[in-house]
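From the pipeline queue, job 12 of 40. The input is one protein chain; the requested action is below.

Action: predict structure.
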Amino acid sequence: MEPERISTSNGSFERGGIANLAGFIAQQRARASERTLVLDAGDTWQGAFISNANKGAAMVQAMNLMGYDAQTLGNHEFDWGQDVLRARASEAHFAFLAANLVDAATGNVVPFAKPYLIKDLGVAKVGIIGIANPGTPAINKPANVKGLRFLAAAETVRRYLPEVRKLAGVIVVVTHMSQTGVDEDRQLARDVTGIDVIVSAHSHTALQNAVVENGTTIVQAGSYAEFLGHLDITIDPATHRVAAIGGANELITVVGGKVPVSAEVTKIVADRAEESKAVTARVVGRTSVDLPLVTRGESALGDLIVDAMLEYCRGQGWGSDVALYNGAGIRSAIPPGDVTFGKVYEVLPFDDLVVGIDLTGQQLTTIYGRSLSDRGANLVISGGTFTYQSSGTVATATVGGAAISPARTYHVCTIDYLALGGDGQSTFTSGKNLVYGDIAADAVADYLTKHSPVSPRVEGRIALP
C-alpha cells in the first residue's frame, strides 16, 4: 500500500504505492475511458501491516476508488479464511473471478466469486474468465480452504470458453498460477486454443514484453505495485473481435511525482498508516549485520527466526528439541541498524502461530526430505542439522548434536501452517500433542529485544547437494 523510498546519488524517489498506482491507472484510463479495463491477478491484500491489520479491507476500499473491473483470487486471498473472503467480496465494487473454485460438496462455483464477467466496451464485448491458484490447498492452511476444490486450469477454461465466446468477441483469462516466469500460462495457451489474452500472476515476473503462445498474448506485471501493465488491443469493427494486440514495452514503472495522485486513495493509505504507527514504529531491537532475504536453504535471517522460535517454545515449558520454519514464509530482508516491529512484520506477515508438536525421528527425516523434493530446501532449522545427498535424499540428520533416532519422539517447535500440513508437509499432521502459542512475529520481536544487537551468521545447519 505504501511506496518504498529509494535513495540514489542524486536524491531519492518513491517506488510503488497504491496512491501512485491509482494516478497511473487514471492516466491510462483518460486515453479511452469507456474502452478501458482494469484487472488484477490476485494476492492483492497480503504483506503489509496496514493492509493485514484490517484483513484487506483497506485495499478493497482503494481498489473500489481506482475503478477496478475484476480480480482473480490468488492463494493469499485465503489467508484469513473464507468468512473474511466473503466479507471482502461483499465490499468490492468489482468482481472476484474464480471459475475453477468450487464447493467440494456441490461442484458449484463458490458464492463469493463468479466464473467469468462480460464487459461491454462499445467496440467489443470482453469475456474475462478467472482462474484461482490451483495449488492453494498445498500452500495455505487447510482450514482456510476446507470444503473447497480447486480444478485444473485447462479443463476449467475448456468448460467455459464456448459459453463465454457466445457472449463476447474478446476472451481474457486472468490467472494466478505460474511458478516460474509464465510457464504454466504458456501451457494453458497450448492446451486451450482460442484465448486472446492471459493476464498472469504468482511468479512475480515483470514481463516487459508480452509472450505469445499458440496465438495467445501473455502478460504479467511483476509485484508490489512496482509496475502497471498496459496492453492495447485493436478491434475489427466488422467482427468485434481482435485484429491486433500490442505487447512491446508493456510495463509502466510506478514512481512518485510523475502523475497526479488520487487524493482519496492517498487519504486511505495515510489514515491506515497513522493507525498502525503505534505498533509498527516501535523499535524492538538492532542488528549489527545485513540479513538478506534467502528462501532456499540456510540463511542468517532464517537462523535468527528459528532461534527465536526455539527459545520461545522452551520458554513455554514445552521442552522443545528443534524448531522448523518454512523459508518461503520469509518475505523481506532486514538491513543493519535498528529493527522496528513493522520491519519484523514485513519479514513475517502471515500471522502464523508458534506451535509445539511431537514427531518421531522418522517423521522428521521424511519432512526434511520432502522439503528438498517439493519446495527446494524450503526449511530452516534450530537445534539440529540435516544434509542432503546428490540424489536429493537425506544424508544425515541431527538433533541436539546427536544423530536422529527414527523411533524416538522429539518435541518440535514450528508454526500452525506447517503443523496443519501446509507447504505439502502432510507428515506434520501425523504428529501428536499439538499445543498453540503466540504469533511468530511477536516471538521474533521479543527475541530481538532480549538479545540485541544481534549478528547471526550461517552456521552450516543445512548442507544442500
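Job complete. The longest strand covers residues 353-360.
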